[in-house]
Each structure stands twice: as structure tokens, then as C-alpha cells.
Design a protein that fits this description.
Elements: H1 11-28, E1 31-33, E2 44-48, H2 55-60, E3 67-72, H3 79-87, E4 91-93, H4 100-111, E5 115-118, H5 137-145, E6 148-156, E7 165-169, H6 180-193
Parallel strand pairs: 1-7, 2-5, 2-6, 3-4, 3-5
Antiparallel strand pairs: 6-7
Helix pairs in contact: 4-5, 5-6
């Protein structure tokens, strides 16, 4: 089956990247560890914990690669945000159900050698737990495309003009298609191991 061609690096993403990420780095002064684990080419999935809405900027700011993030569909409900997120290559996810369309869109990007970002917890963790249970999206899309997964762990809080937040990228790993439940828990354990 012929793979569907998509826009790997939307123009609006490339245009806004230096402005938005430059401002983010100036204000929050994040620290990055393990950036050498992020592939410079080829398809891969970035998957890790979700502490605040700013996490996506933390991940995007760690690499020159265009990262196509999955984001809650509620962000697309207004005409201007719908246009902007679609132009930026963001993938809407309906969190109240298993969203097959979102998974298929993410797979299209991976099949075209792109990077896809996802927070397997499915939402910002506002509980006392260090890490919520993982949904299967990350391991599912990786297993169906033979893409590697780069787990990440975000620590600290976003405090303006203070070095109070950091992100660690763990070694890339492949997903065993035969046992997604086990692999999903393994991915969660890797992310958890980097939390302080």
C-alpha cells in the first residue's frame, strides 16, 4: 500500500520555532540532558510525563527536528486555533474515546520519517502520583511503523528566570509487537526512572 504524503515541516512551524522557543528558553532557562539520544533523521516517537501545558515547548525546544505533537481536540474548537494547529502539524485527539483517526494521522507522519510527540498519561498530571498509568498510543504507533521510541522525563517546575526545570532523554528503544501491554509498562518504568 502506497504511503500517504504529508507536510513534514510546515512553514508556520519553521517560522515560529526560533521566536517561540527562543522566548521559552529565555524565560524558563531549561536544562537538557541526553539530547544525543534524539535521532537526527528517521521516524521516532518522543514519549514522556506531562506536568504542565508548557511541556510541549520543552520537548520541541530540545531538537531542530519538527515534532508533530498529539494534543487534545478541545484546543481545535475555535477557527483561529484550528487553523493554526493544523498548519503547525499538530494532531487532534479526542480523549473521551479511543481515537483511531488520531492514531492513523500519527502513523502517517511516522511512515514519512517524521518525529511524533506524545504524553502517554493522556493529560496533565495534577495528582500526588509521580506518574499516571500510560495509555497505549505511543507503543501502538511505534509498533505499527517500526519507529523507535525516545522516552523522556521532565523534572521541576516552570519558574520564570530560574533554572528550575529540566528534561532527560533516555536511550532509544524499539517496541516488541508481540506484547504491547508489557512494552507499555516498560516504557512507563523508563520514564519513571528519570523522575526525582
Amino acid at each position: 500500500m502506497k504511503k500517504e504524503k504529508i507536510n513534514k515541516e510546515p512553514l508556520i512551524y519553521r517560522f515560529l520555532y526560533p521566536l517561540v522557543i527562543g522566548l521559552f528558553r529565555l524565560i524558563f532557562r531549561p536544562k537538557f540532558y541526553g539530547k544525543e539520544n534524539i535521532p537526527k533523521d528517521g521516524a521516532f516517537v518522543l514519549a514522556g510525563n506531562h506536568t504542565k501545558f508548557l511541556d510541549c515547548f520543552m520537548v520541541i525546544g530540545s531538537t531542530k527536528r519538527c515534532v508533530h505533537f498529539l494534543a487534545k481536540a478541545e484546543l481545535f474548537k475555535y477557527a483561529i486555533t484550528n487553523w493554526f494547529f493544523n498548519c503547525a502539524g499538530i494532531i487532534p485527539v479526542h480523549r473521551e474515546r479511543k481515537d483511531k483517526a488520531a492514531l492513523e494521522d500519527a502513523i502517517k507522519y511516522l511512515e514519512n520519517g517524521c518525529a511524533v510527540g506524545i504524553f502517554p498519561e493522556g493529560k496533565v498530571n495534577k495528582t500526588e502520583e509521580r506518574l499516571l498509568p500510560f495509555k497505549f498510543g505511543a507503543v501502538k504507533m511505534a509498533s505499527e511503523t517500526n519507529a523507535i521510541v525516545v522516552p523522556f522525563s521532565i523534572n521541576g517546575r516552570y519558574k520564570p528566570f530560574r533554572r528550575s526545570v529540566d528534561i532527560t532523554f533516555h536511550e532509544p528503544t524499539y517496541i516488541d509487537k508481540e506484547n504491547l501491554e508489557k512494552e507499555n509498562e516498560r516504557l512507563r518504568e523508563i520514564v519513571y526512572s528519570g523522575l526525582r
